[in-house]
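Researcher: I'm preparing a figure for a lab meeting and need a structural model of a single chain. I don't have an experimental structure, so a prediction will have to do for now. The sequence is pasted below. Please return the structure as tokens so I can convert it later.
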Amino acid sequence: MIQKLAFEDAENQLREFKEHGKKIIGVFPHSLIPDELIYAANAIPIKLVFGGDDHPTTKGTEYMTQATCPFARGCIGYFDQNDPIYALVDAFIGGNFCNGDLIASEMITKFFNIPFLKVTFPTTIKPFAMKFLKQEYLILKQKLEKFTGTQITQDNLSSTIEKYNKLRLIFQNLNQQMKNTNLPLLGEDLQNLIHRFYLLGPDDTLQFIKNLEIKQNANSRNRIPILLSGSGIAYGDDLIHMIEEFDTRVVINDTWSGIHFYLEQIATPSIEDPMETLVQHYLLGNESSRMVPNVRRIPRVMKLMKEFNIKGVINHILKFCDPYIADRNRFKEHLLEADIPMLELERDYSTSLEQLKTRLGAFFEMIS
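Model: Understood. Here is the structure written out token by token.
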């Protein structure tokens, strides 16, 4: 129902942004970079979300070891192939969110001559970590102002936070509507909408949603509600489509490509210090398994399963995705103790689609 953003449309829109003097800032699609800060600098933050294709992943192996996640290797591969959209990136932001982010950032800077605005992330939420990240955000703010030639004022940043919160609220409401089995909205629809936002920013997405009509249909199939957790789903990866071919509905996408953006809104910005508000949101509310101790994932999943009447969990792990590989046993054991059906899918982009379909089919038959 919500169509996937066409590659050509995304490219044309980004070129139009550049023609109007806006910088295109690439961002590794993880959840500690405040896009609001980039947007407030009159730039367009685009997530480097392309993936699912084994060819650029293989090209990335020429720069990184195979023991790095296929998504990170694919990011390098798309730059190596001079992908038309990635070629529009004026600078990119990355850091030490995970091993793949860290190494890919270094390789892209070294081999493709793209300015790198580095941010170092803490792994705890202790007070010293909060102070550290705030300083990193202030440094990033200065770098963005210098690079774009635009001063990030408190008023501009506060209004940008409000705009992003408006979008978060819309996504929350759409996700809540998926409880209604007469609504034809699927997980693939919501993923297509998020990918659009990640590539074109808030203004385009808000306008697109304004023209969106979602109507109830009494003949909609009563699908099995599923929660997808773990590694995110890239633009070009058809995993959610494949899952929903089995009369299921990915009601909750508990990844960086899903609810990690919109699960919680940013608190009303402090008039005196909106930067502190960003730090509070992005560090204290971080949903990734990279944090130490990792105390948010299991309670979050259990709460969402109850709220949305979830019947089964798919734990999606891209090979060498360190945070979720490290968490796999604990996550699995907890769900087993709670008698929650779970399928673990560890894969890379070369994994046979027929193999995946066979495993998915067996799992859904078991829980139906």
